[in-house]
Write a structure and sequence with these properties.
Elements: H1 2-5, E1 14-19, E2 23-25, E3 31-33, H2 39-50, E4 54-59, E5 71-74, H3 78-86, E6 94-97, E7 104-106, E8 125-127, H4 131-136, E9 143-150, H5 154-165, E10 169-174, E11 186-187, E12 190-192, E13 197-199, E14 203-204, H6 205-219
Parallel strand pairs: 1-4, 1-6, 4-5, 6-9, 9-10
Antiparallel strand pairs: 2-3, 7-8, 10-12, 11-14, 12-13
Helix pairs in contact: 2-6
The structure holds cytidine-5'-triphosphate and calcium ion.
Length: 225
Amino acid sequence: LERLWGAGPLHGINTVVTAGPTYEALDPARGFTNRSSGKMGYALAAALANQGAAVTLISGPTALPAPAGVRRIAVTSARQMRDAVWACRGAMDLFVAAAAVADYRPQTVLADKLKKDADTLTVTLVRNPDILAEVAALTPRPFTVGFAAETGDVETKARAKRARKGIDLIVANPIDEAGVGFAGDDNRVILIDKDHAGAWAAAPKTEIARALVREIIKRLPRTAS
Ligand code: CTP
Ligand code: CA
């Protein structure tokens, strides 16, 4: 097989995958984070490596082991994740943003643990960098894949997000549905490119990851046949 298939269809494709949540500290004991197990991003990193890609997985805090054959860089905050991605920008053919990045962080990180002195507490949050949008604005830009966890009219919101961010593919998933998304092993997605949206049946995240990799391979300029 090795000889028939060479080293896989993604051989030589430098790939960066972000996964997991980010954590934005407020004080030494507390912070703000997003719900994300990291399972979808880790499954994608593994599936990409299985097809021969050189994969760097830039991961926020998760309980998952690094997939075999993948270089993992552990980060905590959105800004650390951005810096780690940015360091890879010179050699990035494919970027997959599966992380649930915190959109905001506390404006100031307190050196001492906050005491419950007052009845109400107001925290000022400031915007974090949009890692996916920054990568999509590179020239030349890698083939870029984003995710969109949405409620309500998922497809319409995700179509608009793909166009706004100027990315090649967006993987939309409803998060207001029982049994799929977040912590679970299953996911239900709608794959959207510039001229088509296709809803997939609910399936294990590992299976969805393999199918997404097939769709990426079909569309990648260097591997299209
Ligand atoms: N993303 C990112 N950096 C951010 C925020 C999001 O790289 N600071 C990426 C996510 O990894 C995902 C995509 O952008 O692939 C969409 O994230 P999402 O939160 O759905 O979109 P936002 O642009 O943050 O918009 P909003 O949260 O307002 O819907
Ligand atoms: Ca967001």
